[in-house]
Fold this sequence. Notes:
The protein is mainly beta.
Amino acid sequence: VQLQASGGGLVQAGGSLRFSCAASGRRFSDYTVGWFRQAPGKEREFVAATSWRSGYTDYADSVKGRCTISRDNAKNTVYLQMNSLKPEDTAVYYCAGTQVLMSSTPESFDSWGQGTLVTVSS
């Protein structure tokens, strides 16, 4: 599956962003889709994921309560809504796909989209 992420930008602290991950290629509904982020000088870290199994989602502790992941299989798209953004959320955000039921480790994902940059100003 090929993935394309969008929705990044410059936002003030406390603001919100909605990311989209559009998929093409293989049967999208068979894929778990995750969002990861990488800040300058840091390792890539897990943000959230939605499983191919309906209703099964997972979030990193750092975004729990501020973030909602959802998917629309009819549109081959996964969305990530992030609210109450903080300067520490500044990073390049990536979406990725895997046929594993659920994972939070980048190594489990074999299809990656290009990143979308988020900058949160204080």
